[in-house]
Write a structure and sequence with these properties.
Blueprint: E1 16-24, E2 34-42, E3 46-51, H1 57-64, E4 72-77, E5 80-81, H2 87-91, E6 94-98, H3 108-113, H4 123-132, H5 136-141, H6 162-173, E7 181-185, H7 193-209, E8 217-221, H8 225-228, E9 233-238, E10 241-246, H9 248-254, H10 257-269
Helix pairs in contact: 4-6, 9-10
Length: 270
């Protein structure tokens, strides 16, 4: 893999990312977590990935982030095989936040700023990330704002709730201004559905309102269908395969797996 990584990471996406008959099994097992997945993720799109637990959603995100390589098939970034792009260069063009996150017990601004290490102490950049993540309420409650020491193991350090840690982690994921790929893998699971929906609706609206020449692709994994309906493109995974893909309206009209799951959740909220 390292020997063939001879192509630079692109500065922008013109067409997008394509998965070409991608299958994947974790090391030490033959069970395919993804099975013959072919997808086109258009440049500039907000893409939601949905499905039951174990359907392969997080694994797909990990492959896109080049944390693993496909067992078979290819991932193409525009026309370049991702296998030929050095992992550190590709990850330098990514940003993201995940359900499992580390609690960096640093000053609040540093805990957030680590999302873009060269700007870790740039307060304006940190404040912009806090705003994108809807985490202003968390920072405002800290005794000395972004200068607050996090973590009770430190003298004068403060503990915050799990939900507050999650918002700080989300802000960390928003530190980079122009990532080519933003991966959000259930990063707001501790928040209520209404808060999550409002946050990502605002993010999608801001993304579509700006002239973003990078062609950024935003990936959102969530169990909450009220959130994912605002995506441009929704991918439904079931049993390690893609069973449906399209916009919310298209998938509802098709009356398949997505429509069934959406209606079940909608009934639960009535």
């Amino acid at each position: 893999m390292v020997a063939t990584a001879d192509q630079p990471a692109p500065d922008r996406l013109t067409r997008g990312i394509r998965l070409d008959h991608v299958s994947f099994a974790y090391p030490g097992t033959d069970r395919l977590v993804l099975d013959d997945v072919s997808l086109d993720l258009p440049a500039g799109a907000v893409v939601a990935i949905v499905g039951e637990n174990g359907a392969g959603k997080s694994t797909l995100v990990k492959l896109l982030c080049k944390l693993y390589a496909p067992t078979s098939g290819r991932i193409l970034v525009d026309d370049t095989d991702l296998a030929r792009i050095p992992a550190d260069e590709w990850r330098g063009r990514l940003a993201g936040a995940f359900q499992d996150f580390f609690r960096f017990e640093l000053l609040a601004r540093q805990s957030i700023g680590l999302g873009d290490v060269p700007r870790v102490d740039e307060v304006p950049a940190v404040r912009a990330a806090v705003d994108r993540a809807g985490a202003t309420d968390v920072v405002d409650k800290l005794a000395t704002g972004l200068s607050t020491q996090l973590g009770p193991t430190w003298p004068g350090g403060v503990e915050v709730s799990f939900g507050q840690w999650q918002k700080l982690a989300l802000a960390r994921g928003f530190m980079r201004d122009e990532p080519l790929l933003l991966a959000l893998d259930e990063p707001t699971a501790a928040l209520d559905a209404e808060t999550e929906h409002a946050l990502f609706e605002r993010y999608a609206a801001a993304l579509h309102a700006r002239d973003d020449a990078s062609g950024r692709i935003s990936i959102l994994v969530s169990h909450r269908f009220s959130t994912v309906r605002m995506a441009d493109y929704i991918v439904v995974l079931d049993g390690a395969r893609v069973v449906e893909a399209g916009s919310h309206d298209e998938l509802m009209a098709a009356g398949g797996t997505y429509a069934e799951l959406y209606q079940i959740q909608a009934a639960a909220y009535r």
